[in-house]
Amino acid sequence: MIDLGLTKIALIGAVALVVIGPEKLPKLARMAGSLFGRAQRYINDVKAEVSREIELDELRKMQQDVKDAASSVEQTISSDLTSVGDMNTDWDGGRDLSLDVPLDSTATTEKIALKARDFRKKKILRQAAVPGWYKQQSGRRSRVLSGAARVARFRPPGSRSSNFSFH
Fold this sequence. Notes:
There is one protein chain. By secondary structure, the chain is mainly α. It is built from 5 helices and no strands.
């Protein structure tokens, strides 16, 4: 990298002032600044694109590793299930137990009926409940008054004038 100190920049500016002239120097400085800015933006865009590509490659590698791990787990599980299925058929003498009726079928049907009754009760309670808009209108206070405001509100009409006077 070029090492530019304050003295070197001042020397370059003085030479440019003499060679180019004071009329054209501001235009040239603006043009040089805009070109320098464009170059920096272009370099930053290239750097960002390269880093995105690197990250994308890493993500692809990770995706492939996860796919490989998932397929190996799937193969392991399927092989274990087939070995368990083989043991079940060997144990039962070739008869498949997955189609048999469970031993506790009456308890299961009773549980299902009880759940259905509970569901119906809850549904009826939900439908028969008092609506919210009625609850709000049925005398429940929605605004709280201070003690002085309650006294002023509920004071009898004849006593509204104050008994206090200045003499």
